[in-house]
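Re-running the complex after MR caught last week's input typo. The corrected sequence lines follow. Everything else is unchanged.
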Amino acid sequence: MLIESIHSPADVKKLSSADMRHLASEIRELLIKKLHKHGGHVGPNLGFVEATIALHYVFNSPEDKIVFDVSHQTYPHKMLTARAGAWLDEARYDDVSGYSEPSESPHDHFIIGHTSTSISLAAGLAKARDLLGQKHNVIAVIGDGSLSGGEAFEGLDNLAEQGTNAIVVFNDNQMSIAENHGGLYQSLAELRASNGQAPGNYFKALGLDYRYVADGNDVDALIAAFSEVKDIGHPVVVHINTVKGKGYAPAESNKEAWHWTMPGFDIATGARKSGEWIGSRVADHLLAKMQEHPDLVVINAAVPAMLGFDKTRRERAGRQFVDVGICEEHACAFASAIAKGGARPVWSVASTFLQRTYDQLSQDLCINNNPATILVTAASLLGMNDVTHLCWFDIPLLCNIPNMTYFCPTSEAEYFAMMDWAIAVRERGPVAIRQPENGVATNDAAILQDYSSCGYDITRHGSDVAILGLGNFYKLVGELADALAEKGINATLVNPRCATIIDTNTLESLKAEHKVVITLEDGVVDGGFGDKIARYYGNSSMRVLVRGAAKKFEDRYAYSSILEANGLTVPQLVASATAALAATRPQ
Amino acid sequence: MLIESIHSPADVKKLSSADMRHLASEIRELLIKKLHKHGGHVGPNLGFVEATIALHYVFNSPEDKIVFDVSHQTYPHKMLTARAGAWLDEARYDDVSGYSEPSESPHDHFIIGHTSTSISLAAGLAKARDLLGQKHNVIAVIGDGSLSGGEAFEGLDNLAEQGTNAIVVFNDNQMSIAENHGGLYQSLAELRASNGQAPGNYFKALGLDYRYVADGNDVDALIAAFSEVKDIGHPVVVHINTVKGKGYAPAESNKEAWHWTMPGFDIATGARKSGEWIGSRVADHLLAKMQEHPDLVVINAAVPAMLGFDKTRRERAGRQFVDVGICEEHACAFASAIAKGGARPVWSVASTFLQRTYDQLSQDLCINNNPATILVTAASLLGMNDVTHLCWFDIPLLCNIPNMTYFCPTSEAEYFAMMDWAIAVRERGPVAIRQPENGVATNDAAILQDYSSCGYDITRHGSDVAILGLGNFYKLVGELADALAEKGINATLVNPRCATIIDTNTLESLKAEHKVVITLEDGVVDGGFGDKIARYYGNSSMRVLVRGAAKKFEDRYAYSSILEANGLTVPQLVASATAALAATRPQ
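Corrected-run output:
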């Protein structure tokens, strides 16, 4: 294959136009083959093959620095920068991450996985270059979906003022993960329709120079456009019109479904297994609730399918479902104000993306104490395991903001009960609920219906050791109790229900017959639930063992290894508990 | 005075045009009089007097809902909504807050103090209205400075798509707190120069309808414009060109200095006392460091004076000082990338505004582990005391993100030593330093120069009780030790230096001769430093007392009362420590 002769971008520069078109088809073939076996981002990569070849043909990476927004379109870039082996050889599929990764290659400058940051990062690289008296091109690659995030606006606005070399390749494939949302997209459509000439030009309004490429999958047109802006002395946007999913018919015809894929689809037809999962049950539950409450509105920032709201369900919900695009800050303030206005907002957001809106959670929502409901999805060590998408920092994020209540149900039944209560009750402050992840235990206890003043639920009374299993980790409690029973310890089991409630009555009552308390939480321990319990018992003789994940960035970890590394396996927990109990006995 | 006859907006509607002009001059007189005695926001209020009168003349508040961005321009609004007493009567000056406050009046809908949120909040109110089948106008008032924040872009973009009634009054006074920054401001200038006709229209590019009012301090012109858009069926921007500081000559001529004022200026001349303070010493120190390191760049988001970088110092710094405008997200990613590019970024940000960039701290900075330096200012219970500007949530915010190091110096000398080390050393990850606040003790111990692998500093060896006084609260340590000595307790004193380091050697060594550890931190305890110490000692017999502020929003508090309320006075601490120590003794 031609790709096997590409050892660095220098080899791309030797290719003829025909070679490059051939290379593009090889890249697509390799992409589909690995995606079929391995899963990953489909549409973003297929649409950006020619642009990647053209970038490496025109610019001199790594001296010229390319920053990819979200970096989910970097597979072709990786293939052209000495990492094609991770597509050519199935045994090496896991050699590379799904995102840009400086530890893999000098052609990658940042670890990136959240959107809308590339222009600010490119502005910083350009500023460093200018301060150090260097000369090279800095290029940001950003898609139309990412433009709806406020940080992309901030970056463009500042880049214009910075005034020195910076090239923004605006990859307009007319899709976010689902369809785009926002007034901006109408004026982008007008730019495309007018071959870049329409007067309502967002980029020019921000003071930026602008070029348009009508066919962003034509490698010759791209090379011409990039050559024209290479070494330019001021910031410029090169707007390229591409086809998301280009070259794979199923992905071209259903762009939303083929943004990303699990492995195992049928290559010829694109047929995929569909399965029952919690998302679709939640969506159906919310659709039913919308009938009951015409003022209930479900809000989501650009990942509606993560919530089970596929196209059909979005249509059924009508104006009671709002996708705001990729802008969690707006989503949070919007939800707070809807609650203030007397309606019932339910905002669903993945744990990792909740991070994008700390200040709005604090200022717009919690200071104002409005009764919005937040469903936090994928929040678990079982959630996404790329370092940029870790879903286990939400407990410290939410729990240290006053007025926020963060429920952590232990089962789907408990989750729906909490959700129903939150939707029904308006005399309350902000409530977030952590969607239980696969494999949570069904708590056999009767499910509480009224959470207005709930405390911890002691599900089994024992002595010596009390185990507080928060949310998803309640599932560890039963097994641990059985194992402790074998050591003659009859542990007390507790479902705390909520990460923000310190149930002092229960905690005090445990002092009478217990010497050790173990807290278990499915997230980072620093700043989390267990730390608050440790503080509570700090001025007492109670021993407290706080167990969860250590404060550390992990990448592409196995769930079982992270449990092991953090002393969360049942044998490890038994050993810790028995040792702690022994230490409390008079010598 | 005419203002005394205004009991509600209904009374404004009865006024003639001449009456309204007279009312405007009365409002200005009252503003200056109270500002002179009380301090507060000057320019934003003076410039928005006529617009406030016109809004209340045309619209029917509170049915029609006005949301003020930042809400630092709401003094005239408060006067017209039954709160003029708080300006007319010196004894009632403190009846109102400096921001919009629903508990004061039904004409205020949100507690707001951070910028760029008004459009998202208005969008939410409009959505609730539409869901509930109500009819009323929703109006957002936003200044040009606030437009540089990404959330304002997100709000505008979404408002356009929402498509129903919403009116954005864009108050363009050609100033942020200091001068504006960003490419957008050039196209806004072109709109003003062309009476709203220039083609590069940011709002139209986002799909919004648009009107222009050339003199935004002409109440008749404003009434005409607002009347035209009242009950409009789609979103519209009314761009009004106002004069910041209008009607008070010193404020008109020096807009940056008169954005906000302390009390006590000379009304006739505007002369104010200038004093030495830590900000100017930090700025001078950084200017000197810029000479030494031509690749050092100081970054700030729109509050350069908080860092001591007044106009003169900004000019001296040249390209080594960057004000990015109000956009902390960009500032954070920009700083990370400058560090990655090989230069030395120092980003200064107030504790309360650091909250606006959690995700960039985590993703762009900490995951990438780049050696940027952050100076966190005003971070203390002694910082700003409005509920929207609390400066004591930064420890949990920063300390629970992996790879972040958060130094908390106890004195100015230690602060500069840490800063110098951070600027000099590039082989490190992200470092934040908490600027010491007024009144911190000078730590007599020799100041460490190399912080590469520092641990806690035991400044006095004692027994039984060890006191860990973090940063600003190290000042409590000496007094507490003296008071404990009177009870026969010879306490050990520790300067932990850093909120993110758990110095296990020191903590273990304390076990030998101590039974009680007290942690003191100048911030909220939840998720902070003390919680980590409590967890560390959780599985031991050490008693830990964690002291700081309770997790609770406080508004306009007195420093002394918040210490008292949290058991932080020396007598309270002595009582807690002696009781804890007594409890460890065999009965």
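None of the earlier attempt is carried over here. Chain A has a mean pLDDT of 96. Chain A touches chain B through 120 residues (CB under 8 Å).
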